[in-house]
Specification:
By secondary structure, the protein is an alpha/beta fold. Helix content is about 45%, strand content about 15%. The strands form 2 sheets. A 3-stranded parallel sheet has the order 4-3-5, with helices on both faces. Strands 1-2 form a two-stranded antiparallel ribbon.
């Protein structure tokens, strides 16, 4: 039996624990002024987790390419809870930088902000089809 002090815990475990109490409390106020409660954040993370887990071929390793926005919190935590290894790509990087990271980390899925990075994602898909 492993004692509690040496029990393995992930950052996703801590997020789940933090979002499981006092569900009406504000946990985030977006740059647009949208107030997000613990319940809303928990449910959105859960939706993303379920989406990933129900994919026909779920990713093993994913990268996120987006500027700071609330959806990144949902995606990164949902991926983590689904057991996906996550890498974040700097939003001001270059395609060559992204390609290096994608190949080096064996990324098989890219989650990106289509509004800002559709062109970059297309280039990455062409040059790193895996």
């Amino acid at each position: 039996m492993t004692d509690l002090l040496h029990q393995h815990i992930t950052s996703a475990d801590m997020v789940v624990h933090a979002l499981s109490r006092d569900l009406d409390r504000t946990v985030l106020i977006s740059d647009t002024g949208q107030v997000i409660t613990a319940l809303e954040m928990r449910d959105n993370i859960s939706r993303f987790q379920q989406l990933v887990e129900n994919m026909e071929n779920p990713p093993a390793r994913a990268a996120i390419l987006a500027k700071n926005r609330v959806e990144v919190i949902y995606a990164s935590n949902g991926l983590g809870l689904a057991g996906v290894v996550l890498t974040t790509l700097h939003p001001m990087g270059a395609v060559e930088d992204y390609l290096y990271v994608i190949e080096d980390a064996s990324i098989d899925t890219l989650v990106y902000d289509a509004e800002l990075y559709e062109g970059v994602a297309k280039q990455l898909r062409e040059r790193a089809p895996q």
